[in-house]
Amino acid sequence: MYERFTDRARNVMQLAQQEAERFKHEYIGTEHIIRGLIIEGSGVAANVLKNLDVDLRKILFDLDKVVVRGPDSAIKGDLLQTPRTKKVIDYSIEEAGYLKLNYVGTEHLLLGLLRDNFGVAALLLKRQGVNLKQVRQEIVAFLGLTGQQWPPEQLEETNETENELEEPSLMKALDALVDNLHECKLAAISEQNWELGARLRDQIEQLKKQIETQKRKRTNRE
């Protein structure tokens, strides 16, 4: 799967798995990949975000506010990739192809995360004012790819939602996490991995309780 990935991009995916394990998760989601990109720190993606004045520590802070630790009994080893993560990898390969590159770097992983509009990583990046078109243009400038541009229709395709101007909330990120876990649970059940399905069901319930707590706090403030 990672044959075309650069060493740094592979390292990001390894860090994503390590972060998932650290949080006692049995899956790799977009929230783990963005942590991997930030922790790796020296790739094109991290440098592009810094050039755009993105507060990487704030993203990590927001992640810590929405990501719930799994059970201490979580099983280690090869982790399940969420459907969103698989899409992000496919998008990353597409983004490299648009520039006619034969490798996938950290910058393409970043673009893949942004193309997944409703993933946790994309929502938190948007809270920092980051959008797909802006990052594509900054990557071209950073790498000095003069004369090598994304096709015009791709530069125009920002994949933003109708509420582009509305700041994504942490509640949306929590909802995205529930969706991720639900998709993973269905995948586990389809593979007759009943134990993992039950674990993910419990984590979904834990997240839903957290969401209800956040809603009550917001109602009380209002």
Structural notes for this entry:
Helices cover 66% and strands 2% of the residues. It has a single domain, classed as Clp, N-terminal domain (Double Clp-N motif, Orthogonal Bundle). A two-stranded parallel ribbon has the order 1-2. The chain has 222 residues and is mainly alpha-helical. The protein has helices at residues 7-22, 30-40, 44-51, 56-66, 83-98, 106-115, 120-127, 132-143, 152-156, 170-190, 194-221; strands at residues 27-28, 80-81. The chain contains 11 helices and 2 strands, in the order αβαααβααααααα.
- SS elements, strand count: 2
Q: What is the CATH first-level class name?
A: Mainly Alpha
Rg of Cα set: 18 Å
Order of strands across the main sheet:
1-2
SSE series: HEHHHEHHHHHHH
CATH topology, which one? Double Clp-N motif
Q: How does the major sheet shape up?
A: 2 strands, parallel
Tally of distinct domains: 1
Based on the coordinates given, report the CATH architecture. Orthogonal Bundle
The helix fraction, in percent, is: 55-70%
Distance between the termini: 48 Å
Give the overall silhouette: globular
Structural class: mainly alpha
Residues in β-strands, percent:
under 5%
